[in-house]
Amino acid sequence: MMDFEVECKRILFLMTPATYRSGAFLNAAQRLGLEVVVGIDLPETLSDYWHVPLGLDFSQVEASIQTIIDFAQTHPFMAILSLDDSASELAARASVALGLAHNSPHASEAARDKLLMRRLMSAGGAPCPIFREFWLHADPVEMARQVSFPCVLKPRRLSGSRGVIRADTVPEFVSAFHRLKRLLINEGYSENETSFLVEDFIPGFEVALEGLLTHGELKVLTLFDKPDPLDGPFFEETIYVTPSRLSGEMQQAIAQCVATAARSLGLREGPVHAELRVNDQGPWMLEIAGRSIGGLCSTVLEFGSGICLEELILRHALGEDLASVERDGGAAGVMMIPIPKAGILRSVHGIEEAQAVPFITGIEITARLHNQLVPLPEGASYLGFIFARGETPEAVEEAIRQAHQHLHFEIRREIPLLNRSLPAV
Predict the structure, then answer these.
(1) Is 207 in the same domain as 283?
(2) Which residue segment(s) compose the domain that 224 sits in?
(3) Position 304 in a domain
(4) End-to-end CA, the chain
(5) Which of 49, 338, 397, 406 fits as disulfide partner to 354, beta carbons 3.0 to 4.6 Å?
(6) Is 18 a domain residue?
(7) What is the mean pLDDT of the chain?
(8) What's the pTM value of the predicted model, to 2 decimals?
């Protein structure tokens, strides 16, 4: 058992009301005996109504920073953590104001803005695709003449593969552009003031790296293989399995690539989640975020003697030396169950059969019955998660695939009220 002594300290979590990640971090903080203050992205009136101790409007950064500073005058913090991408810049700027360990605000911005990320990575020597910036008000046919096919259209700030679309031809590019444009305008972006990214498609398979940065030095916590092909036209995440089946030499090259990317963005402290493609030319950086893996995926990771990823991140934020902490042995995996089509989720079948598959440790259906489902590239969620542990990555992957085959989701397209048949009178 690893012997850590953690005195009672106060920490600020910044989160949105819809985050998946709060439960794991709150439980980890409780195990460590930390006092937690939750800063939630809510208008002031709703914060008062729901008795939220620290209601913040993440879109009003200056006002939110001042609110945090005022609160800290009587309730000082040891650290500020953004639990997802939405408040990473706010966390960095508030940490600067309070003199806490932090990434620079510029680095936090670069980790959210895909165009700025690409520019800094390219300048810093991290292998990444050729890219161009275009504007929503421009002519898509003219844009298509300036790119190489296949290519990928990407919004600058949406996460979770939202709005990411591959195009192989000019007609596909024009169609993808209009789809991305509709999505961004629906999200509140201005047509005349919004740009997006188009980059060359990189063939190969994907991996994801979880790490911790301390004074700019990267410690790799684990490397996930993504065994399902992610070739488009959309790029929904599915299965993650660790440990990686890649050679030690390739894993070292991936770690070096991520370290170069983090350095080029100026990321120096805290968790990083990096996505890469790997082919015969080696690893290519796709994205790097100044946070840990999203959703409920972190629950498959354990370190030392049963320490979860969130506890590790909190210990690191409090300044503990974690250089010797390694992931527990054995293989683990998770599947983010994709939404196959739009509609209303009416029922879910086969959960007991899926749970009975050897090596399956849990099934978590997060989509709510009778609610609207929206698949990628417009959607921002999954049907749920399948978790597995076993002796080998191959056994874990096969268990997840078998469990998924047992699950059946009844999704009905919503019929507009005016088209529904009226009862006979």
Answers:
(1) yes
(2) 105-122+203-294
(3) no
(4) 73
(5) 406
(6) yes
(7) 91
(8) 0.91
pLDDT digits (tens, 9 = 90+) for 73-126: 999 999 999 988 888 999 999 999 999 988 899 999 999 999 999 999 999 999
Q: What is the pLDDT of residues 257-272, one digit of tens each?
A: 999 999 999 999 999 9
Same domain, 58 and 110: no
Look at the chain and count its residues: 425
**CATH number of the domain encompassing residue 361:** 3.30.470.20
Residues 386/363, Cβ–Cβ less than 8 Å? yes
List, in order, residues 6 or more apart from 425 with CB less than 8 Å away.
Answer: none
Mind giving me the DSSP string for 194-217?
Answer: -EEEEEE---SEEEEEEEEEETTE
Long-range contacts of 281-284 (CB under 8 A, 24+ apart): 281/127, 282/127, 282/250, 282/253, 282/257, 283/127, 283/207, 283/250, 283/253, 283/254, 283/257, 284/127, 284/128, 284/129, 284/202, 284/204, 284/257
Residues 287 and 404 reside in one and the same domain = no
| Residue 378: inside a domain | yes
54, containing H or E segment:
strand 54-56
Q: Are residues 162 and 212 in the same domain?
A: no
Residue type, 405: Q
> Does residue 406 lie in a domain region?
yes
Distance between CA 365 and CA 384 in Å, rounded?
4
Residue 96's nearest CA partner among 110, 86, 108, 114 is 108
Bridging pattern class, strands 10-15 and 79-82: parallel
Q: Which amino acid is at 269?
A: E
* Angle subtended at Cα 210 by Cα 54 and Cα 383, rounded to the nearest 5 degrees: 70
The answer on 157 and 239 residing in a single domain is no
Closest CA to 121 of 199, 217, 4, 9: 199
* Shared-domain flag, residues 187 and 221: no
